[in-house]
Write a structure and sequence with these properties.
The complex is a heterodimer of chains A (394) and B (372).
Chain A: E1 9-14, H1 17-25, E2 34-37, E3 46-49, H2 51-54, H3 64-70, E4 75-77, H4 81-98, E5 102-106, E6 109-113, H5 118-121, H6 124-139, E7 143-148, H7 151-161, E8 166-168, H8 174-178, H9 191-199, H10 205-210, H11 213-220, H12 222-231, E9 247-258, H13 261-282, E10 285-295, E11 300-311, H14 314-328, E12 335-346, E13 350-351, H15 357-377, H16 385-388
Parallel strand pairs in A: 2-4, 7-8
Antiparallel strand pairs in A: 1-6, 1-7, 2-3, 5-6, 9-12, 10-11, 10-12
Chain B: E1 2-6, H1 7-17, E2 32-38, E3 41-47, E4 51-58, E5 60-63, E6 65-70, H2 71-80, E7 85-90, E8 96-100, E9 103-107, E10 126-129, H3 130-140, E11 155-161, E12 164-170, E13 174-181, E14 191-196, H4 197-207, E15 215-220, E16 224-229, E17 232-237, E18 256-261, H5 262-275, E19 282-288, E20 291-298, E21 302-308, E22 319-324, H6 325-334, E23 339-344, E24 351-355, E25 361-367, E26 370-371
Antiparallel strand pairs in B: 1-5, 1-7, 2-3, 2-6, 3-4, 4-17, 7-8, 8-9, 10-15, 11-12, 11-14, 12-13, 13-25, 15-16, 16-17, 18-23, 19-20, 19-22, 20-21, 23-24, 24-25
Helix pairs in contact in B: 1-2, 3-4, 5-6
Classes of the chains: A alpha+beta (394), B alpha+beta (372).
């Protein structure tokens, strides 16, 4: 068997991300219990809570009314998801300076594969310190980082390090680190698994690690195999750490569900620009475009098409996404999310077009010129007119 | 309605109309054939509303009449019947009885009134020799776009002039163009029509059933094209829209040329393609004075290097150019055996290929390179 290369993974988790972003704009609220989510007197839930609010027992997904009861003087903010995504994007660009393998698992959380970056940034531990400092200096947003040899352990570590902490688990300390922790600390283990494990007399990770693989598979099926690995600090799968990037995507959850065709079209144009920019930054060309729609009732639909010619151009991505959108959107229903993914990525543009050669060359020039402006004056300095039709939400 | 036909006569016609029968079952009558017994003939019609086909075979007609029968079912039944006479008889409620040797079926039918009327064959515009039409289709139709969104590329352009006929097809990445001289009596203007790919496929099928010297009667009305091949008639909806101005992309300055034998270059490309990236089929051609090399590589399969020695030296600057192997092979298998002239300008503009052994036809293939 081939020796497996030792991985160095950092899990970066932004501390109370939504709240931290809000505080950039409302510094007077610093130090106060702040909640982002539905107002305290209305139906709806808490999306994020400041550490001051958490001290009162408020946590995300809790009904806002309950939160209000726990802390009547907490400040409730409605949330501006577009803004959070913009800041998430800024944070991501900081990450990408440290390693090309960045996997944003959500808007405020990412795995960074630091393997092989030692010469540039020193040990993974040193790199993590630099990352935390760089994120703070460039965005004024706090984060916590866990460093370990697997995603599982790095995530557990960042969780324990919060807020504004750094935790490094050397390989020989992993078992000792995990053993005393309750099984719920392991990502993926929820209430149900916890309860089943408790039935087997297993409450800590250490106890879980002593259960035979066969036993776990017998009780949990395939999930048992994953548990067996996780208990040992090994990842169940490393799919996102592939050398090759599989796709580049952006999606937008609307603050309020949207049914207005123009608004949705403008959002598609905007998303296509974000995806296009990232393709060009990475010098990749996409062969497929996937559209993701999520209706009010969470019914989610993804539809893809293959392009005639691989592309890194916003306008081509937009046209493909808009075509998929026209074909698949049920106009009677409002959407809560739209997303665009560019897939089947290639390092070369590949097949050139015969009939559109001139138009394509013009579009390439235009895009290059627009990128030059954006590089100089910022991402929002130049946008397509279509994408500017989006309604501001802040 | 009551008639009898010979199994093989019927089977041949049923086979020819299957391609036109609607596959989806949204409009049930379209899965049926219209059969009409008249005098001593049986007429069969099928349509999917995009195309229609009408064909005829000899029959012993006891009682004239018409009915409809499920096309696919009938074909499957007839195919396995013994080689004998098949008797049909219309029953109550549009049912049809079928008897052959010791087999007997009663088949559900639908009212013939529900079957859409096919347009009548108008006065023919020209007669095209079957062999010419078959050649034109075989050498261009592979380049037709399958992308539904570019519907004007979903067919081939047929251009008729008083003394020539041309067919052009492109999917936006490569273009196949063939022209031949032929005197069309009675034609004094230019006719340009877009023929859908599906119609070409069906016409090609009908052409295989007739002698080369047979002539195809071609006609059109405002919205249909008609190809009458012998007694069989294929009707297609006209593809509306503007075919791209293809003349603008035909290369004029491809002065760097090299001539290679079709079979040699085709098998070299085929072999190299085996280890090429299976998604892009990218290969690289390196042209030098006295040799042409073909390279391909992929992480999965490895590398290939093929070397060809042209009979006459390549006359241009040494260069490398990338292509999709599939596009080159499509053309090479359609081209006549013998020498093929490869003509280039640079690695960013379209290359042109012309078979020199194509007798009586001016055939050229234009293909955009890949940037590798």
């Amino acid at each position: 068997m081939l020796a497996q290369a030792v991985k160095q993974i950092a899990h970066v988790d932004m501390d109370a991300f939504y709240v931290s972003v809000e505080l950039l704009y409302r510094p007077e609220l610093r130090g106060q219990p702040v909640v982002v989510g539905a107002p305290g007197d209305q139906r709806g839930v808490v999306a994020a809570a400041s550490y001051e609010a958490r001290a009162f027992g408020i946590h995300s997904a809790m009904p806002s009314r309950t939160a209000k009861k726990l802390c009547p003087h907490a400040v409730f903010l409605p949330g501006n998801y577009e803004l959070y995504e913009q800041w998430s994007e800024r944070v991501r660009t900081v990450f990408e300076r440290f390693t090309p393998v960045v996997h944003m698992v959500s808007i405020d959380e990412a795995y960074l594969d630091l393997t092989g970056t030692e010469r540039l940034h020193g040990t993974a531990w040193a790199a993590a310190q630099k990352i935390q400092r760089a994120v703070w200096e460039e965005t004024q947003l706090p984060c916590s980082i866990g460093v370990a040899q697997s995603c599982v352990v790095s995530k557990v570590a960042s969780d324990l390090a919060k807020p504004r902490g750094l935790l490094w688990i050397p390989v020989d300390a992993e078992a000792a680190f995990l053993a005393p922790l309750p099984v719920r600390r392991i990502p993926g283990i929820g209430k149900v698994t916890e309860k089943t494990l408790a039935g087997l007399g297993v409450r800590t990770v250490g106890e879980l690690a002593r259960v035979k693989r066969e036993k776990l598979e017998e009780v949990f099926g395939q999930w048992g195999e994953a548990l067996y690995r996780k208990a040992r600090g090994r990842d169940a799968d490393l799919w996102f750490l592939d050398e090759e990037q599989k796709s580049i995507s952006h999606e937008r959850t609307f603050a309020e569900d949207v049914g207005d065709a123009q608004q949705l079209d403008a959002t598609l144009a905007y998303l296509a620009e974000l995806v296009g920019q990232r393709l060009r930054e990475a010098r990749l060309y996409a062969r497929t475009v996937t559209l993701k729609l999520r209706y009010e009732n969470f019914q989610t639909l993804t539809r893809a098409l293959t392009l005639n010619q691989p592309t890194d151009l916003d306008v081509v991505l937009y046209e493909a996404a808009a075509r998929l959108f026209r074909r698949n959107w049920n106009r009677k229903r409002k959407l809560r999310l739209l997303g665009i993914a560019a897939g089947q990525l290639d390092a070369a543009p590949g097949q050139l077009s015969l009939l559109d050669a001139d138009r394509h060359a013009r579009r390439e020039k235009l895009t290059a010129a627009a990128d030059a402006v954006r590089n100089r004056f910022g991402a929002d300095a130049l946008r397509s007119a279509k994408s500017l039709l989006r309604k501001p939400t802040h | 309605m009551e008639f009898s036909v010979k199994k093989f006569d019927l089977l041949r016609e049923l086979q020819l109309v299957q391609g036109v029968v609607e596959r989806k079952t949204t409009i049930p009558i379209l899965s049926n054939l219209l059969v009409e017994a008249k005098k001593d003939q049986l007429w069969i019609a099928a349509t999917d509303l995009e195309m229609g086909i009408r064909t005829v075979l000899p029959a012993k007609v006891k009682k004239e009449g018409a009915g409809t029968i499920a096309a696919r079912r009938l074909f499957e039944i007839v195919r396995t019947l013994p080689d004998a006479e098949i008797k049909f008889k219309g029953l109550e409620n549009n049912w049809v009885e079928l008897r052959c040797a010791r087999s007997r079926f009663k088949l559900v039918g639908m009212a013939r009134e529900n079957f859409p009327a096919l347009p009548d064959f108008p006065h023919p515009l020209v007669k095209i020799p079957a062999v010419i039409l078959a050649t034109l289709i075989a050498k261009t139709s592979f380049a037709i776009s399958m992308e539904e969104s570019r519907y004007t590329l979903n067919g081939a352009l047929l251009q008729l002039k008083p003394d020539s006929i041309t067919m052009v097809a492109t999917d936006g990445l490569r273009l196949s163009h063939i022209e031949t001289s032929h005197r069309f009596n009675g034609l004094n203007t230019e006719v340009r029509v877009l023929v859908p790919k599906k119609a070409l496929t069906e016409v090609e099928r009908l052409l295989k059933e007739v002698e080369d010297k047979e002539e195809v009667q071609f006609a059109r009305d405002d919205s249909h094209l008609f190809f009458k091949v012998g007694e069989r008639l294929l009707i297609s909806r006209l593809l509306s829209g503007q075919f791209p101005n293809y003349e603008a992309v035909l290369p004029r300055e491809n002065k760097s040329t090299v001539v290679l034998e079709r079979d040699q270059v085709a098998s070299a490309i085929k072999r190299a393609d085996l280890v090429a990236d299976q998604r892009s089929h990218a290969i690289r051609m390196a042209l030098d004075k006295n040799k042409v090399e073909i390279f391909a590589s992929s992480a999965e399969y490895g590398e290939a290097h093929e070397e060809l020695i042209p009979p006459k030296p390549y006359n241009g600057e040494a260069m490398q150019i990338g292509f999709n192997a599939t596009y080159l092979l499509d053309f090479l298998s359609a081209a006549a055996a013998g020498p093929i002239s490869f003509e280039f300008k640079d690695d960013q503009t379209a290359g042109q290929m012309r078979p020199l052994g194509e007798e009586g036809y001016k055939y050229r293939y234009v293909v955009m390179p890949m940037r590798l």
